[in-house]
Structures are given as C-alpha cells and as structure tokens.
C-alpha cells in the first residue's frame, strides 16, 4: 500500500477531529447533567457499571482485533465470527439479568435491580456491530467510522438530557447508555454494506478465536484492576463518595479515552498492514507514538495545574470536592497515554502473551494501592492509584519493547522533546496561575492560562527543540492530493 501514509494521516486526522468534537459534546453533556442530576444519581449507575462493565469486555470477545490484525480474512470467517459475537451478546444479556439481584443485594440498594436489567439490552446491540465495525477498520474507512461515532454519541446525549429535563433522574444515564450502541450498530451496518451468511464448519477461525480469547482475557484483567477502586468506594463509602470520585475519574479519563480511540484504532489498523515490513512498521509506530505523547503531555500538565477551574466550569460548585481527586489523578493521563500505544504495537507483532503478563502484574499492583488508600476515602484511593501507575511507567515501557525492533533508547528519545517542552510550559503556567488565581474568574483563567501554556509548549517543541520539520512533514502528507488510480 504505497499510499498507506496518506491514508493513515487523513484517517488519524479525521478520527482525531471526530473524537475532539465528541469530547466537546461530551463535556457539554457532563456540564448539563451535572446540573440536572445529583452525585447520588451518578453513583447509583456507577455501582452497576463497575460490575457489568466486566461483561462489556466479552462483547467483542477480542474478535474485532483478530479480524483487523489478520493479513487475509475470508467472507466465511467474518460470518462465523459475527455469529460468535451474537451468541456472546445473548449470553451476556442473560448473565446481566441473572446477576441483577446479586448486584442489588451487594450494594444493599434495591433500585439497582431494574437498572441492571435495563442495561442488559446494550450487550446484544454491541455484539451485532462488532464485525461490521472491524470490517470498516480493515478497509481503513476512518472518516466513516468517526462520523458514525459522532452521530451515535449525539443521539445518546440528546436522549439523556431530554430524560433528565423530564425528571427521570438516574434513568437518563441508563437510557443514554442504551441509545449509543443501538445507533452505532445501525450505522456500521448501513455503511459496511455487508450481510453475514449462515455459519459453517471448516472456515479456519480457530486461530482467530485463540487471539480473541487472549485479547479478552487481557482486557478482563485490566478492567478488573481499574474498576475495583469504584467497587470498593461504592461498597464502603457509599454512592455520594463514588459519585464524586467517578465524575473526577471520568473527566481525567476523557483525554486517554479519546486519544486512544482516535489514534490507537488508526495506528493498529495501519500497523497490521505493515507487520511483515519491519522498517516501515518501526518508523510508523515511533512517529505515531511521538504524536500521542506530544498531545498527552500538555493535557496532563494543564489538568494538574488548573484542576479547580476545570471542575468548577464543567461540574459546578456542588462538585468542588472532586477538584482534589481530579488533580491527584492527573498523572495517569500521561501514564496511559504512554502505555496504551504499546499495547497496539504488541498486538501487531504477535506478543499478546507479553501484554497479558503485564496485565497480570498490574492487577495486584493497583489492587494493593487501592487497599492502602481506601481507609482515607476517595482522595486516598486516587493518590494511591496515581502513585502506583506512575511508579510502574518506566518498568512497563522497558518491558514492552524488550527484544523487539524498537529499543528503549529510541522510545525515550521519542518522548524526550515533548517532555522537556511540557516542563517549560508547566513552569510558566504555574507562575501565571499563582499570581492571577485570585484576580481572574475560572473561565478566563482556563482560557488565558491554557493559551499561554500552549504557546510556550509549541514554541519550545517546534522551534527550540527543532520539531518543526517533523510536524510540517505530517501536514504535507495530510494535504497531499489523492493518488490517481491506474
């Protein structure tokens, strides 16, 4: 694929733009619901999703990854995998119904029974769109994917806000969680234009199922590790504490979620087409990694410095307790921004076992941190989790690239310039915040402080540290005319 660079750049830009738009819409949605609902409403739904979120990991069964990663895939293999996903969706819906009374009893909250029953529908809806979405990724149709995701999210938010305005309370959150997968699945079906055939034996999907199982197990271990904090807080500190912690956690997770969704999916699809060309694979990954880290670092510094203003603007005065938690969790933006791209790299080069071993280490590591911080409430859990992930960052990076085509030195060299630029920008922004915090209102502070920080960051990165040519080459690739077909 001679034009893979151009397709990847344009697809990445489309996904990044789409995810950026989604981010703004989601922030507006959160700002609105934070004023229409109470922390307890979010806490109630958070109690359910902390448990049933485990089931969501099995919705794809890792088979979307298997479909994208495979060099060649037949029509019958796609069809067989589609029916496997449908079967998994049915099983998960039934499992959700069966465990509803257990969840309600565990939290000693009867309202959770019907919330759990209602969310069971989402599993079947998600399962029906897995292979169609994977097919679009194989075809590198990232602009179409971004459009589908944007429309689905917008519809979901409209339903949620409408129900909140009508006084349905926490049911507004439940409705939004069901509408989004329904709209997304309808969208990928319409755009993929593929109708699965009946399942047949001998299609050769066994190796794909094994890869899917490995990916699913990896996701399960990681999810349990990163969700146990919410289960523990909900069980021992109640819905209010979980609601405040959960909103701060969700805000912190936004940059990681959207960057991974925008760049991660594009990178994995592109790298999978290059898995037999090690020179281009290495070059593409390091360039993509540099872009991700260059975006992640200033966001991390911004969130840490302006935590109080961010919470006040997005959630409102009644959520001011979330500001400390938000600031404590800020370092995890950088940690996940640097770790997540390496997961896609390991999947591409066939090192799923290594990724799984890393997940098995992370789980007890962060669990121990939660238990240490739990007696001190939400703030203690946030501090313990953030510290544990920060301490694990460098060992994790070394572990990921050990023995691969990418050396540790190359990886650290890639992040060194953005890191130094972020330090310089952070110092300037900190001084500005310290001298003007009492004089400026939160909105002005965010605009001026963020603008000054971004200006310093870009000046240092592009001109002082010489990254202008690198980003100019990316822009030229993005703006280059489409190659003519022969």
Count of all domains: 2
- The H-and-E topology, N to C, reads as HHHHHHHHHHHHHHHHHHH
In total, the number of strands is 0
Task: Please give the count of helices.
Answer: 19
Radius of gyration: 22 Å
N-end to C-end Cα span: 14 Å
- What structural class do you assign from the helix and strand content? mainly alpha
* Whole-number mean pLDDT: 82
Strand fraction: under 5%
| Subunit arrangement of the protein | single chain
What would you call the shape? globular
Proportion in helices = over 70%
Residue runs with pLDDT of under 50 for 5 or more positions? 482-486
Largest sheet data: none
Structure in words:
This protein is mainly alpha-helical and 486 residues long. It folds into two domains: 4-406, no CATH class; 407-478, no CATH class. It contains 19 helices and no strands.
């Amino acid at each position: 694929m001679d034009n893979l660079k151009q397709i990847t750049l344009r697809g990445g830009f489309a996904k990044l733009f789409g995810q950026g738009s989604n981010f703004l819409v989601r922030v507006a949605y959160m700002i609105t619901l934070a004023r229409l609902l109470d922390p307890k409403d979010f806490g109630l739904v958070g109690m359910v999703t902390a448990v049933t979120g485990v089931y969501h990991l099995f919705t794809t069964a890792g088979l979307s990854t298997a479909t994208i990663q495979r060099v060649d895939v037949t029509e019958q293999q796609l069809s067989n995998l589609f029916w496997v996903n449908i079967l998994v969706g049915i099983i998960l819906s039934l499992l959700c119904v069966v465990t509803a009374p257990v969840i309600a009893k565990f939290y000693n909250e009867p309202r959770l029974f019907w919330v759990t029953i209602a969310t069971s529908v989402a599993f079947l809806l998600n399962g029906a769109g897995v292979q169609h979405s994977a097919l679009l990724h194989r075809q590198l149709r990232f602009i179409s994917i971004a459009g589908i995701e944007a429309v689905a999210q917008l519809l979901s938010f409209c339903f949620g806000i409408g129900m909140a305005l009508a006084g349905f309370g926490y049911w507004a959150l439940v409705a939004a969680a069901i509408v989004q997968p329904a709209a997304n699945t309808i969208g990928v079906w319409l755009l993929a234009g593929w109708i699965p055939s009946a399942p047949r034996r001998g299609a050769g999907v066994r190796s794909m199922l094994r890869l899917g199982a490995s990916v699913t197990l990896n996701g399960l271990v990681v999810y349990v590790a990163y969700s146990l904090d919410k289960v523990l807080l909900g069980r021992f500190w109640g819905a209010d504490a979980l609601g405040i912690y959960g909103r701060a956690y969700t805000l912190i997770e936004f940059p990681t979620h959207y960057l991974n969704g925008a760049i991660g999916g594009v990178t994995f699809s592109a790298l999978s087409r290059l898995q037999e060309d090690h020179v281009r694979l290495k070059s593409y990954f390091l360039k993509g990694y540099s872009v991700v880290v260059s975006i992640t670092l200033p966001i991390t510094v911004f969130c840490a410095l302006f935590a109080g203003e961010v919470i006040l603007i997005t959630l409102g005065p009644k959520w001011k307790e979330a500001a400390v938690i938000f600031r404590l969790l800020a370092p995890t933006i950088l940690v996940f921004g640097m770790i997540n791209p390496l997961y896609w790299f390991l999947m591409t080069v066939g090192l799923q076992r290594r990724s799984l071993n890393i997940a098995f280490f992370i789980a007890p590591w962060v669990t121990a941190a939660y238990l240490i911080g739990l007696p001190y409430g939400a703030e203690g859990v946030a501090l313990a989790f953030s510290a544990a992930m920060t301490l694990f960052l460098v060992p994790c990076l070394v572990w990921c690239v050990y023995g691969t085509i990418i050396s540790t030195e190359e990886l650290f060299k890639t992040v060194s310039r953005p890191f130094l630029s972020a330090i310089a920008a952070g110092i300037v922004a900190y001084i500005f915040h310290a001298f003007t915090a009492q004089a400026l209102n939160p909105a002005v502070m965010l605009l001026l402080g963020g603008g000054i920080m971004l200006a310093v960051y870009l000046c240092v990165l592009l001109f002082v540290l010489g990254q202008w040519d690198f980003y100019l080459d990316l822009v030229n690739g993005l703006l280059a005319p489409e190659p003519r077909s022969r």
